[in-house]
Amino acid sequence: MNGIRRINRAWAGLLVLALTGPAAAEDLAAAAKNPPKDPDAALALGRALRRAGLFDDGVRVLRGAAQRGKGAVVVAARTEAARTLIAASRQKDALKECATLKAQTPVRWETCVAEAHLLWKRASLALPAADRALAVASDDYDALVAKGRALRMLGQNAEAHAAFQAALAKDGARHEAPMFHAELLSGMGKGSEAVTALRKAVAAAPDEPEPLLALASALPAGAEATDLLNKALGIRAKYGAARARLGEVQLELGKVAEAEAAFRAAIAIDPKVADWQAGLARALVAKNDWDEALKVSALALKLVGNHALAKLAEADAIAGKGDIDLAIEAYEKAASYSRDNPGPLVHAARACLAQNRPTTARAFADRATQSFAEFAPAWAILGDVAVAAKDKATAKAAYQKALSATRGSIDKAAIKKKLAAIR
């Protein structure tokens, strides 16, 4: 019997390795129609289905594995089924699946409940469940991760950090603790440490799409972020968040057509995500398709009335159509929707300068530099406004500030050229 079990486990590993690449989803779906009878092999297939985003098939296969398995396999299959339902945003069904673990192991049941509540950021419900699990097993990895996540959501950063550190000490080879710890580090302004943690998460689980997306979201737009996103999409083709992030990366790289295609692909997966609609509106602005940009930004604003980036895209489109007075109103609203975002002020200054409203352009540029002193694009547009007004001293100082600023992306070569042109 042990020999058969080893053969089946080896077959399961080969199955997961084989089902990668462009045809992975089709192959996995086909395998799910006739899943292996061996519980270990079915568990491996169920995990692969969850990674690929084939959630319904995954839950069915995992439940079959639980019914045919014994002991640890049953617990693993039920836990994985609950996590698959969480990934599918089916919290009520996930909680029901968690309940099947109650008789098997209270620790896994409570931790499962905590993870289900964390789906909708119900930290006040997740934390007690995690604590109940830890009262039974004080060093349980999953319970420590769940506790860290809940504490982060409640703003208890020091306690969250301690929980994640304890989980990492318990098992440094898994991806969950470094991935969620990175969220905490990022929120604390420790971006470089967050990236380091995410690299550990990706190295620990290169076949999990979530860490790939998290790292790609933490990195600047470029080849590495693009490669990570393509890897995530190779695992889960219908991964809307990864498609949308790819759109953001492509847009920042100036690849407007590719960005539009990526945002449209994300929206095809879920049209009710305002961020993705706003991203598409920004791509349409970049291609000067003002009317379509207005339509799409209106859809985003219908979903979230105070969506700053959607309002900014609307303002840019209105300015593109030539109505600078109406655009100024929209820029002001966009700025009020997100007071920590300098984008609306910088865009407003640029639009006003382009449409011969130098005084208003200067007012927006001054607000941008005063409120966001380390944002390079704010100083760059102030320099442009000052050049137009023949204020050489201000222009020179502004361009120098742009070159030394620590936030935001600018074309430094172009700024240096403008600076050299000032006599």
What characteristics describe this protein?
Serine Threonine Protein Phosphatase 5, Tetratricopeptide repeat, disordered N terminus, mainly alpha
Structure summary:
The protein is built from 25 helices and no strands.
Give structural notes.
The protein has 423 residues and is mostly helical. Among the domains are: 1-99, Alpha Horseshoe (Serine Threonine Protein Phosphatase 5, Tetratricopeptide repeat); 105-205, Alpha Horseshoe (Serine Threonine Protein Phosphatase 5, Tetratricopeptide repeat), CATH 1.25.40.10; 342-423, Tetratricopeptide repeat domain (Serine Threonine Protein Phosphatase 5, Tetratricopeptide repeat, Alpha Horseshoe), CATH 1.25.40. The chain contains 25 helices and no strands. The longest helix has 17 residues, at 2-18. The chain is elongated and about 80 Å long. The protein starts with a helix and ends with a helix. Residues 1-14 and 16-23 have low confidence and may be disordered.
Distance between the termini: 87 Å
| Overall pLDDT | 94
- What is the total tally of β strands? 0
Radius of gyration: 25 Å
Q: For this structure, what is the CATH homologous superfamily of the domain at 105-205?
A: Tetratricopeptide repeat domain
Spell the H/E element sequence: HHHHHHHHHHHHHHHHHHHHHHHHH
Can you tell me the CATH topology of the domain at 105-205? Serine Threonine Protein Phosphatase 5, Tetratricopeptide repeat
Architecture (CATH level 2) name of the domain at 105-205: Alpha Horseshoe
